Automatic annotation (TrEMBL):
Transmembrane segments: none annotated. NCBIfam families: HMP-P_kinase (TIGR00097), thiE (TIGR00693). Keywords: ATP-binding, Chloroplast, Kinase, Magnesium, Metal-binding, Multifunctional enzyme, Nucleotide-binding, Plastid, Thiamine biosynthesis, Transferase, Transit peptide. Belongs to the thiamine-phosphate synthase family. Pathway: Cofactor biosynthesis; thiamine diphosphate biosynthesis; 4-amino-2-methyl-5-diphosphomethylpyrimidine from 5-amino-1-(5-phospho-D-ribosyl)imidazole: step 2/3; Cofactor biosynthesis; thiamine diphosphate biosynthesis; thiamine phosphate from 4-amino-2-methyl-5-diphosphomethylpyrimidine and 4-methyl-5-(2-phosphoethyl)-thiazole: step 1/1. This is GCM domain-containing protein. Residues 1-62 form the GCM domain. Gene3D superfamilies: 3.40.1190.20, Aldolase class I.
Length: 557
């Protein structure tokens, strides 16, 4: 089988050749080998780097089929009673990626954080019955497979995939659990090699599974993973992702992607955690979800890898179960329940580290769309973004906000809207930032509900205290230095910032004239409540936003 993107996205629903939206077309001017630095969940200050070779035309996003068709992934996998892996991980991954997920259960396992205590295989005719029910009715876009515990189940699945072709088939060749317990016996290998892999669009073995597929050759290095990816590709799948989560002696977690022509190494710092049970299932489901939405294969793989990084980093110390195979949180929500108010808050104060505030005048000056500016900033490592569009038409602002939100979500970066609660609500942004003469915080909270982030500009300890009483999440304090971006804005200097930060019960981000030459001095006032710097001109009034963001991030981290 050929390994082209166009083949993968078979135009069953008629959008394989859809034109690229202008935003994506313009954003594809990457150098050949590029290092895309993205921030992890800012609980840690690690920054990921995806060492990937970008392919401009192949890495574009495709337009969804129609506005009404919900992207749909069917997972054919086993149930994990502990909820960390298998069907449960697949459902959570698809929900987190906003894709519908149906399920065909191949086995029920009794499993927890210690290991697998029992496996009950579903008879193949009942697997067939489930496949018939879903595939005959529900317009599945992508099928993702996990635990396929018997050769007959593999065969039944292949028959159904021939009868009901789908746009893409993602195969996670699950063989053992992370605890080392066998989930699929060696008999299924015949089915994989003879039937399933040749139908597969991407197969995602970990290093042990890659070794089994290749008859037992050990994989000990990234170079071995590359060789294995090539050899597995020869078995029929159009794309191969050899996952390096278990690669010994590696500080990084490196996955090797091979599309039949090019190799790509996707690299991120290894998260030191026990909460990694279900990463393989999640990664494959995430790839399936992105493909169902219309992404290219490389883009789907990159998004999935980034999703895992953010979720693992967030979940590194989640206490669930007494064993070492602990699950992680796909929704980044479990730790943020504010017990006292019952309010569930997604806000993490460390998100304030490098806060990018857009400016339409600067974007016009440099000939950029707001989305291009935001994309460059988050690629450079901005940890939170605020859209501040004082003179935009509502419709234009809303459209731009939706595009920016999509970009920010794919990087796990919160997006706030300045002042315009209506726009924030309409696009489901993560929150708002208001000034002292904008919507009062208390009203904003009642309109936005408990989950959204609300920030408020404060110059004095009294305003900071009021912000806390009214239910804000953070305060923006400044202008620290004189600036042109805001007329008649009194400068409070480092002394004023220190005074407000000492008094504030809320996390503080400094704003006003902050740039590469003074950002360090700001952070060095050493106030625990001061979590970062917010910048406008020093990112957006510059030729290369991405480079400026990286440089500033390095200074404040
Ligand atoms: N500790 C970790 N830190 C960062 N990424 C990890 C870690 N463990 C696994 N991953 C990533 O999770 C995904 C699943 O990999 P792996 O754990 O090797 O698969 P499996 O769960 O099938 O054994 C890969 O993208 C891998 O790089
Ligand atoms: C039902 C089921 N499917 C897949 C896995 C693999 O997940 P992991 O490699 O994280 O143990 C599992 N443990 N259980």
């Amino acid at each position: 089988m050929a390994s082209s993107e166009s083949q993968l996205l078979r135009p069953r629903f008629g959008y394989g050749g859809a034109p690229v939206p202008p935003f994506f077309r313009r954003s594809l001017r990457f150098p050949f080998w590029t290092s895309v630095h993205t921030n992890t969940h800012p609980i840690s200050k690690n920054h990921l780097s995806l060492r990937v070779k970008m392919q401009p035309e192949a890495d574009m996003m495709m337009k969804p089929v129609s506005d009404n068709k919900i992207p749909h992934v069917l997972t054919v996998a086993g149930s994990d009673s502990g909820g960390g892996a298998g069907i449960q991980a697949d459902l959570k991954a698809c929900a987190a990626r906003r894709v519908y997920c149906s399920t065909v259960i191949t086995a029920v396992t009794a499993q927890n954080t210690v290991g697998v205590q029992g496996v009950n295989i579903v008879p193949e005719d009942f697997v067939a019955e489930q496949l018939q029910s879903v595939l005959s009715d529900m317009h599945v876009d992508v099928v993702k497979t996990g635990m396929l515990p018997s050769l007959n189940i593999v065969k039944v699945l292949c028959q159904f995939l021939t009868k009901f072709p789908v746009r893409a088939l993602v195969v996670d060749p699950v063989m053992k659990s992370s605890s080392g317990d066998v989930l699929s016996g060696s008999s299924v290998l015949t089915g994989f090699l003879g039937e399933l892999l040749p139908m597969t669009d991407i197969v995602t073995p970990n290093i042990k599974e890659a070794s089994v597929l290749l008859g037992g050759v050990p994989l000990k290095s990234v170079s071995d993973m590359r060789t294995a990816a090539k050899l597995i590709h020869d078995l029929g799948p159009r794309n191969v992702l050899v996952k390096g989560g278990d690669l010994p002696n590696s500080l990084d977690s490196v996955d090797v992607f091979f599309d039949g022509k090019e190799f790509y190494e996707l690299c991120s710092p290894r998260v030191n955690t026990r909460n990694s049970h279900g990463t393989g299932c999640t990664l494959a489901s995430c790839i399936a979800a992105e493909l169902a939405k219309g992404s290219s294969m490389l883009s789907a793989v990159k998004t999935a890898k980034h999703f895992i990084d953010v979720a693992l980093d967030y979940s590194r110390d989640l206490a669930i179960g007494s064993g070492v195979q602990r699950p992680f949180d796909h929704f980044l929500k479990l730790k943020n329940i504010n017990q006292s108010s019952g309010r569930q808050n997604m806000f993490n104060p460390n998100d304030l580290l490098l806060y990018a505030v857009t400016d339409s005048t600067m974007n016009r000056k440099w000939g950029r769309t707001i989305a291009e500016a935001v994309k460059a900033a988050v690629e450079g490592g901005a940890t939170i973004v605020q859209l501040r569009e004082k003179d935009a038409e509502t419709r234009d602002f809303l459209d731009a906000s939706k595009v920016c939100l999509e970009i920010c979500r794919s990087y796990g970066v919160p997006l706030l809207i300045n002042d315009r609660l209506d726009v924030a609500l309409a696009c489901d942004a993560d929150g708002v930032h208001v000034g002292q003469s904008d919507m009062p915080v208390r009203l904003a909270r009642s309109l936005l509900g408990p989950e959204k982030i609300i920030g408020v500009s404060c110059k004095t300890p009294e305003q900071a205290h009021q912000a806390w009483i009214d239910g804000a999440d953070y305060i923006g304090c400044g202008g620290v230095y004189p600036t042109n971006t805001k007329a008649n804005n009194r400068t409070i200097g480092l002394d004023g910032l220190k005074e407000v930060s000492q008094a504030s019960k809320l996390p503080v981000v400094a704003i006003g004239g902050i740039n590469l030459s003074n950002a360090r001095a700001v952070m060095e006032i050493g106030e625990p409540k001061l979590k970062g710097v917010a910048v406008v001109s020093s990112l957006f009034d510059r030729a290369c936003i991405l480079t400026e963001t990286r440089n500033l991030l390095a200074l404040v981290s």
